[in-house]
Amino acid sequence: MHPQMTPFKVVICRGGTSKGIFIKKNELPKDPERRDRVIRAIFGSPDLRQIDGLGGADVLTSKLAIIGPPTRPDADVDYTFAQVSFETDFVDFGGNCGNISAAVGPFAIDEGMVEAKEPVTRVRIHQTNTNSIIVADVPVIGGKAAVEGDHHIDGVPGTGAKIMLDFSDSAGAITGKLLPTGNTKDSLDVPGYGEFTVSIVDAANPLVFIEAKSLGLVGTETPAEIEADKGLMKKIEAIRGTATVKIGMAKTLEDALKKSPYIPFFAIVSRSAEYKSFLTGKVIKQSDIDIVSRLLFMQHMHKTYPGTGTVCTGAAARIPGTIVYDLLAEEARNKTLLRIGHPGGVIEVEAKADVTQESIKLQRVAYDRTARRIMEGYVYVKNSIL
Question: Is the pTM for the entire model greater than 0.85?
Answer without folding.
Answer: yes
